[in-house]
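Entry 0007
Protein: Peptidyl-tRNA hydrolase
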Amino acid sequence: MLLFVGLGNPGSKYAGNRHNIGFMAVDAIARRQRFSPWRRRFQGAACEGEIDGVKVLCLLPETYMNESGRAVAEAQRFYKIELKDILVFHDELDLPPAKVRVKIGGGNAGHNGLRSITAHCGNDYPRIRLGIGHPGDKALVHNYVLSDFAKAERGWVEAVCDGCADFAGLLATQRLDEFQNRMHLFLDAQGFGTPAKAGAKPG
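Output (C-alpha cells):
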C-alpha cells in the first residue's frame, strides 16, 4: 500500500491558504479516482482506493501543520508502510508558482510539516513539491503562506491539482521522474510554463 499525504491545516479558515495546496492536490486525486468517502482516521481525514491496481491510502492530517508527522506515523504503523511508499504533497516557497518538482529526502527548507514527518518517520520519503512562489522577504513568509490564493492565481492552482489527479498513476507505480516531466508539459500546455504566466505576483 502507498500513502499519499497532503499537508495543510484543518478547518474552513485555512481551506484556501497557500499552505494548504497539499490538501487540495490530494483531495483532487481522491475525487478523480473515486476513492471511498473521507472519514476520520489516524488523527486526520483518510480515504482509500486503487490507482492502476495499486492500493492507496490518502491522508490529510488534522493535527495542524507543525504536528503532521503524528498522523503520518500512525497510518504508517497501522499498515506497515515503508518510508519510500509515503508520498507527501506540500507547498514549496523555493519554486515559482505552478512549478512542480519531485525529490526524495533532502532538507526540509524550513517547512514545519516536513520537519515533523522526518522527526516521526524518517527523512527519505518522496516529496511532491508544489511551487507557490516566495513573497521576497523572509519576514513576510508566515503571513504569505497563511493567506488565501489570490483570485488571479486560482487558474494555475486548479491546473496543478488537475495535473496531480491526471498523472496519479505515475506516482502509484513509482514513476516519479515521468510524473514530474508530464506535469511540466501539462502545465506548459495550460499556459503556466513560466513564472510570468503563473498568476498573480507573490505577495
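Curator remark: The longest strand covers residues 44-51. The domain at 2-197 is CATH 3.40.50.1470 (Rossmann fold).
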